[in-house]
Amino acid sequence: MSRPNTRRSTESGADTQYGAVQDPNPSRMAARAQSVKAAGRGAMSGTSATTYWSVDKWGIPSQPQQATRRSGTLPAHGSIPTPPAEVFDGLNDLEDKMRATLSALASFNEDERMILLRQCRHEEACAAQAAQPIPPGLLNTHQFRHMWRSLGVKLSREQAAAMFLRHGCDVQGLLPYEVFAAKLQGSPARLLALEPEQKGPYKASGGGWGFKGKILYRYCRKPVFPPSTWDGTLAAVSAKPPKAGLILEWVYGYNGKHNTAPNAFYTANQKIVYFVAALGIVYDPANHTQQFFQGHDDDISCLALHPGHALVATGQVASALDGSADSPFLYVWDATLSPPTSVQRIDFPAEGGSSSRLIVAMAFAPDGERLVVVTGDNRHTVAVYKWRNKQLLNQGVGHNGQPPQARHATTLLA
User: Fold this and answer.
1) CA-to-CA distance for 130 and 132, rounded, in angstroms?
2) Which pTM value belongs to this model?
């Protein structure tokens, strides 16, 4: 029985002729000629949908189109709506299942590709007998799903559409099944080369965590691939901050080896106050417990005890958290409260392009109302404050050296 060479287009209602080798339709031939020129300009480069594709036969592969119906139903012919991103994310697993199915059916006389092509031609023959032929070598999504269902693999409409868009379909939404067979049964190295590309790592926002293709990094000469067992849902969970937090229970160590400024005192209630990193610590030796003052955002550099043995002053280095690293500050806090509570904060911003860098040393006056501060600028500036209202009483050039010189200066001025 001869195969009819016409079909009715569901889009326009006109009869469209298909020849065995060359399309006699002049307008279609002209469009394909333009497609060949576009392919030469790079329209066909670098995507898995265009590998093994013949522009002379099928023109430029169809680009993904948005669905025009809320139901998302896919037409048997015509452009194919773009399925959701999660459907594309699952194609690798689906193709692995397809390969395993074909491998189980293969024999010595008929390998996997031969089985697949035989099933495709069977669908093509059935369409011709039903007087619903399509051009030779092509399948629509309905035939594609029916073929795989007969092999034991069920596909949804969205999965079939994603397969067509991934491996290449023409502007009528038809898949060249020889192209699909070549890609599905290609070598592992070839399959890797056909994977889609992503520039940069997974983004914390925007999704796309199920992507399993090639990932191009700026400083990496060759692309990298996610693990074969990559689960994108785990990345989606990691992109969100955890519900649980951390609670500081105990601090080990003592920052006294390199710090020659005063750094440990007994308080009025016989507790020991000292510092480690950015934490002020109040240790109760009777109960073996610690409490923490956490007002600093960078390393504490010195500590001073108020004459009343209840208040503590701690100064820190200039923090780089804000990108400036030029404004150290000090806190006066009550070490007898639970938890330790801030009483006053005094900042030392950069002046005239000169940074104070850090608080080198401090000391309270005998009356407890004044606080002498030595900063780490080039002049080791010495400042005297009425600390309760942050009033600067006096300021001058200090001793240009490291503690204990700076400590002696503060003691003398106090």
Assistant:
1) 5
2) 0.44
